[in-house]
Write a structure and sequence with these properties.
Elements lengths: L9 E4 L12 H13 L4 E4 L11 H15 L4 E5 L5 H14 L3 E5 L8 H14 L4 E5 L1 H4 L5 H7 L5 E6 L4 H10 L3 E4 L5 H6 L4 E4 L6 H12 L3 H19 L5 H11 L16 H14 L1
Helix pairs in contact: 1-2, 2-3, 3-4, 4-6, 6-7, 9-10, 10-12, 11-12
């Protein structure tokens, strides 16, 4: 078991800002990244689910890493999402992220093809062998169709560059089993688990909701670290309604995060198809809940 935090504790799964015409908004990405770090994020995860990685090009992914690295310097870690359903392509993206200045890579399970566990393990090892960057595995079976089973994670923990997991498995027992038997840094990938996973030895969180309330989420783990467990619980509970509305009310987190950021005059822009923007009623509901929290 470890309490190491290789990429920080309070990580934001950052949206990818686009211009009104739908192009990558490099300036907006830099401004948003700087704001997130100033308000408590010590790590930024780019081109993940929330960052619309399926609809951004390889060149856009690399440009985003370069721009954000320039904006935040050494004040925060920069982790680049490189996972695809193709091992060869994932390796190419990992090498490009390393060249662009990333501190680590986020590698999701190959989706759609649903490889068995031995093939999944081989995929992750090949990606980890390909570059010098530390790897955060991304376990989100609800989207990929494939679980990274606890025993597979325990074996992968022996690789010197596989150092962390972003956990969206909704298997709290499985996460604790891996925590107890490895030195992998576990990050909550579902905001409702931020405090719970941290309390049993997790490293922190990779949060979509942090795009809009970074300071409020950071306050949860800061209170816990200070020994104020009741205060940490209260802060987590206060955020629950917004977490539910952003993540579990029928719209993807990318859509709800961008809707709120746009309402607040912060860099976001449109989502790319097949995603569609939130309607006015949904935006009004999000904004009302946000205002209650802040």
């Amino acid at each position: 078991m470890t309490t190491a935090t290789p990429f920080g504790r309070a990580l934001c799964a950052m949206i990818t800002p686009f211009t009104s015409a739908g192009a990558l908004d490099v300036d907006g990405a830099q401004r948003l990244a700087a704001r997130l770090v100033a308000e408590g994020c010590d790590g930024l995860v780019l081109s993940g689910t929330t960052g619309e990685s399926p609809t951004t090009s390889d060149a856009e992914k690399a440009a985003l890493v370069t721009a954000v690295r320039e904006a935040v310097g050494d004040r925060a870690s920069v982790v680049a999402g490189v996972g695809t359903f193709d091992t060869r392509h994932t390796v190419e993206l990992a090498l490009a992220a390393e060249k662009a200045g990333a501190d680590g890579v986020l590698v999701v399970s190959p989706y759609y093809s649903r490889p068995p566990q031995d093939a999944l393990e081989a995929h992750f090892r090949e990606v980890a062998d390909a570059s010098g960057l530390p790897v955060m595995l991304y376990d989100i079976p609800g989207r990929t169709g494939t679980r990274i089973e606890p025993e597979t994670l325990i074996r992968l923990a022996g690789h010197p560059r596989i150092v962390a997991v972003k956990d969206c498995s909704y298997d709290f027992l499985g996460a604790q089993k891996v925590l107890a038997r490895t030195e992998l840094a576990y990050y909550a990938g579902c905001d409702e688990h931020n405090l719970a996973l941290y309390a049993v030895g997790g490293a922190g969180y990779v949060s979509t909701v942090a795009n809009v309330v970074p300071a409020q989420l950071r306050a949860v783990i800061d209170a816990f670290d200070a020994g104020d467990t009741a205060g940490a619980a209260r802060s987590q509970q206060r955020a629950t309604a917004l977490i539910e509305l952003m993540m579990s009310a029928g719209l993807p987190g990318t859509v709800t995060a961008k809707a709120l950021l746009n309402e607040l005059g912060l860099p976001a822009g449109p989502v790319r198809a097949p995603l569609r923007p939130a309607d006015r009623a949904a935006v009004d509901g999000l904004l009302a809940e946000y205002e209650l929290l802040v």
